Request: fold
Amino acid sequence: MILAAGSIGSTEILLRSRDGFGTLKNLPRSLGRGWSPNGDFLTLAKYKAERLQPTKGPTIGGVIDFLDGVDLPDDNMIGYDGRLYVEDGGLPNVGAHLFKRWMEKRGPKGWAYRKASSLTDFSDMIPWFGQSIDGADGEFSLRNPLQFWRARTQLNWNPQRSVSALDTFKDIHVAMTRATGGKPIPLATWSRLRMLVTPHPLGGCNMAAAAGAGVTNDMGEVFGHDNLFVMDGSVIPRAIGRNPSKTIAAVAERSCEKLRDELPRRLDGATTLV
Ligand SMILES: Cc1cc2nc3c(=O)[nH]c(=O)nc-3n(C[C@H](O)[C@H](O)[C@H](O)COP(=O)(O)OP(=O)(O)OC[C@H]3O[C@@H](n4cnc5c(N)ncnc54)[C@H](O)[C@@H]3O)c2cc1C
Reply:
């Protein structure tokens, strides 16, 4: 059996199997632990004199790689080894999409389309996107495990161990925006609420060197459960500080290759189902 439902999906399926349905009661205790949002941070900057048009063209046209560490001048984190990966992002033109069917229309409908699309054109803004090395200490558990048919995964993520990495990202965003003549728009959800959005969830079924330290071994096989494999972002046991899909795919391909090599031995003596 190969599970590949992603960091949240695979973790939820296994949590339900252990804590809800009770069909796999001996799944490792660390299941759900060590989750990371990959240190993702998204902020905006405004540039008066430039026409940037983030709603057009590709996202991530370039990156600035600080993964070997950065110390900001005049910060109070002297010697802090912030590791970051900064990218330009893109934004959808929501207004244009909403009123798309009126694009060619004359009269009020055509006017509404042009107005809406110019309102959400954000042509003087650029989203800065990036990753850092966060604390990777989020934990998924099942809410309502007793009513397991209704149970949903809930995340407990205390930002405390990630604050310095994410604040370094925030500071470097401010410094770089000012250095290029822009005005930074602070991310209030982070500074006030300590909330973030991530498209890069990692972990939950963390790969580890030994049972007791994680959920799967180096080929994605769940400790104590022969032939149950996890092959997706849920096995990545920490933030990797850059866009993760190729790392996830490379680790999954390696697991497939190892499984292929081991198949004859595993099938030898196995019961043949007709
Ligand atoms: C908007 C956006 C932009 C991104 N851009 C980039 C990028 O530029 N570069 C990059 O490297 N990464 C990018 N990513 C991240 C990348 O897509 C993910 O890291 C990667 O796809 C994760 O792979 P995965 O195999 O772990 O999970 P997924 O690709 O999410 O695959 C999991 C699959 O399992 C299915 N599933 C979930 N639960 C269940 C269930 N209970 N039963 C059955 N099926 C289930 C899902 O529908 C999905 O098809 C982006 C993500 C988003 C959201």
User: Anything to note?
Assistant: The first strand starts at residue 2 and ends at 3. Residues 96 and 247 are 35 Å apart (CA to CA).
